[in-house]
């Protein structure tokens, strides 16, 4: 049975504020962080509320406090993020390797991070004479390249979205050439879990290589579906 999204009145306000505060700290200068007063102003609450939220997050290791009393993101978030990445790779790793070898193409997986797409995995075929590898952790805007656009295509439509996002949502996959790596074509599909998309998977091939777009697209769509099932 699918659960319905919580209505505004059902949201836990304190938890929502705490999570929003983490987002605000992520947007702040990573070297300077924020003082409780600055955090309160950005969150739109009284300083005492921000101070209590920061104290709670500090206790859980999600933020850290400098000698000057300023707050930055803590290692507790890294631990959570690492576990999420490990879970994704347990499910996706073998599938990426299989499709890379079978299609003789670099298989890639990206995850959303704010307004960017971050490379979680890049698997190159062992016997390929010419291929491209993407550095794990590399980042590009969500609105560019097949993998980034595919994530947006897996989400609800927005009024000002790029035409390729709209097209990708209709056909279930996205194709771009030269947007991430010159002279290479990417074909990607969104990984939708519980009605939301925060990741995509795709293949990258030289643009001059002869290929059947629909055949590769169907392979990528099927791969995205398998990963989504494994994560559900």
TrEMBL record:
Domain of life: Bacteria
PROSITE patterns: HTH_ICLR, ICLR_ED
UniProt protein name: IclR family transcriptional regulator
One annotated GO molecular function: DNA binding
SUPFAM superfamilies: GAF domain-like, Winged helix' DNA-binding domain
Protein keywords: DNA-binding, Transcription, Transcription regulation
PANTHER family membership: HELIX-TURN-HELIX TRANSCRIPTIONAL REGULATOR, ICLR FAMILY, HTH-TYPE TRANSCRIPTIONAL REPRESSOR ALLR
IclR-ED domain residues: 71-232
Residues in HTH iclR-type domain copies: 12-75
InterPro entries: GAF-like_dom_sf (IPR029016), HTH_MetabolicPath_Reg (IPR050707), Tscrpt_reg_IclR_C (IPR014757), Tscrpt_reg_IclR_N (IPR005471), WH-like_DNA-bd_sf (IPR036388), WH_DNA-bd_sf (IPR036390)
Biological processes, Gene Ontology terms: negative regulation of DNA-templated transcription
């Amino acid at each position: 049975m699918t659960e319905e999204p919580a209505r505004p009145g059902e949201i836990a306000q304190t938890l929502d504020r705490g999570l929003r505060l983490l987002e605000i700290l992520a947007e702040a200068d990573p070297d300077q962080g924020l003082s409780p007063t600055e955090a309160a102003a950005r969150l739109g609450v009284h300083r005492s509320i921000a101070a209590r939220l920061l104290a709670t997050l500090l206790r859980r290791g999600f933020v850290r406090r400098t000698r000057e009393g300023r707050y930055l993101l803590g290692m507790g978030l890294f631990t959570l993020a690492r576990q999420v990445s490990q879970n994704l790779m347990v499910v996706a790793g073998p599938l990426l390797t299989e499709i890379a070898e079978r299609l003789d193409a670099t298989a890639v997986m990206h995850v959303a991070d704010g307004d960017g797409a971050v490379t979680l995995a890049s698997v190159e075929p062992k016997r390929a004479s010419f291929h491209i590898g993407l550095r794990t952790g590399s980042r590009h805007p969500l609105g560019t390249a097949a993998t980034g656009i595919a994530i947006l295509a897996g989400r609800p439509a927005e009024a000002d979205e790029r035409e390729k996002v709209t097209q990708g949502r209709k056909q279930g996959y996205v194709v771009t050439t030269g947007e991430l790596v010159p002279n290479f074509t990417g074909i990607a599909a969104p990984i939708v879990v519980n009605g939301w998309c925060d990741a995509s998977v795709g293949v990258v091939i030289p643009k001059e290589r002869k290929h059947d777009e629909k055949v590769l697209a169907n392979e990528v769509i099927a791969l995205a579906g398998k990963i989504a099932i494994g994560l559900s």
